[in-house]
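> forwarded from #structure-qc
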């Protein structure tokens, strides 16, 4: 869904997932070089289409990108971020159970990463609040 912010920059609505392995590692995917923020690591997900619910978009994107189906997904946080060339609204879910074996269906590299190693990966700026949330909860 595209909204406009006061400066008329289109806002891209994205559903994203923090996907946990049974051992507690988090799945990351590397963005293709030719895409916005290419080469950086991200939490899997994608654009919410017009008329589509966030959960439906998340289910579709996880199937298309990773070949998995979320079984347990809970809202984690919602955030907005403005890049110079676009704005994003991220609805982030915590996926603690899924069916299937994640694979990079679009050729993207994947990595299972423990929380203590997340800072070793370069992420888009919009992902910083997600990292802060994950690392703050790990400190508890």
């Amino acid at each position: 869904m595209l909204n406009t912010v006061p400066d008329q920059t289109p806002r891209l609505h994205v559903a994203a997932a923090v996907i946990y392995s049974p051992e507690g590692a988090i799945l990351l995917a590397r963005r293709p070089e030719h895409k916005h923020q290419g080469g950086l690591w991200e939490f899997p997900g994608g654009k919410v289409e017009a008329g589509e619910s966030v959960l439906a978009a998340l289910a579709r994107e996880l199937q298309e990108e990773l070949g998995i189906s979320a079984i347990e997904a809970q809202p984690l946080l919602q955030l907005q971020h403005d890049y110079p060339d676009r704005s994003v609204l991220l609805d982030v879910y915590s996926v603690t159970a899924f069916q299937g074996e994640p694979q990079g269906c679009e050729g993207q590299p994947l990595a299972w990463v423990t929380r203590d190693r997340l800072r070793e990966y370069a992420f888009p700026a919009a992902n910083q609040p997600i990292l802060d949330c994950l690392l703050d909860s790990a400190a508890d």
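QC bot note: Residues 2-139 form a domain with the Nucleoside Triphosphate Pyrophosphohydrolase fold (CATH 3.90.79.10). The CA atoms of residues 65 and 106 lie 6 Å apart.
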